[in-house]
Amino acid sequence: MPHRDETEQLLLVDALAQSAFAITSILNRIAADNELSLTQLRMLAILRDRRPTMSGLASLLGLEKSTLSGLVERAETRGLVARGRSSADGRAFDVFLTEEGRRQARLIERDVQQAVLPGTAGLSAAERETLRELLERMQRPAA
Amino acid sequence: MPHRDETEQLLLVDALAQSAFAITSILNRIAADNELSLTQLRMLAILRDRRPTMSGLASLLGLEKSTLSGLVERAETRGLVARGRSSADGRAFDVFLTEEGRRQARLIERDVQQAVLPGTAGLSAAERETLRELLERMQRPAA
DNA sequence: CTATATTGGTTCGTAACACAAACTATACCG
DNA sequence: CGGTATAGTTTGTGTTACGAACCAATATAG
User: Is the CB atom of residue B69 positioned under 7 angstroms from any atom of strand C?
Assistant: First the structure.
């Protein structure tokens, strides 16, 4: 049952959004269980393999930079992240996970896997691989 | 480059989470542009094709039911949603979109499509269809 | 049938979140 | 070098989110 390509695109966007809603619902719960907010959890996940500046992190999270000061401050107070002077710009700070933050991120990762895996049970191994590859392709910049 | 199946599963979960993070970042921005919070936006999207009770909606959003009273109250005050007595349980209220809420949801849907579509450009039409189908398969209950 | 347990939704207290405006110091460009 | 842009912070305001407590409706057990 293929659709016209324009329709197909819109259906894909909707499927991506629905998937994001479902995952977000799960993440909300896991965050609360770990005494984190959804945004704190997302920040930890993003920082697993990045060291962005404050405004870079704001952009990745889709938030205003004024929001980040408090967010990072509180995470810093909890020992989950630290800040360092950016070498690229004397005004900027990089944000990165501490060892404690890495531990917390791994715990969360485990919880997320446990919660999300059952939902993938209806797919064959080949389908799972295809889905993963296609999603990863979408995360890569085209250029 | 296939992996062991267990690894493949974990990579898929990670890809799903990364996708959700990226979409959520976009949704955060669109919500702010429409003077909504992320959670308000998610609620509108969920209510497009559902009429859940308050606690049903809390579950769909992954939030505590105590959070829903204020959330729905404010959306009701803005004329985006309304409540009706549930026929299934004399204590319960259903929540549903008003006409205004439907209009708002359509505007948001348009914005989301505009923002997300460019990210799908690197996939062929067939790949897009495959991705959509696999995502939809995941949203369906297996039973 | 009655007493007890459970549950749907609300209220309240508390901390956190998120935006916009304003600000300061640093960086950039003509 | 001077004017403009920008990274990050602070402040004000409204919203969000959890847990505890509560009340009324519903479910359950004897």
Answer: yes
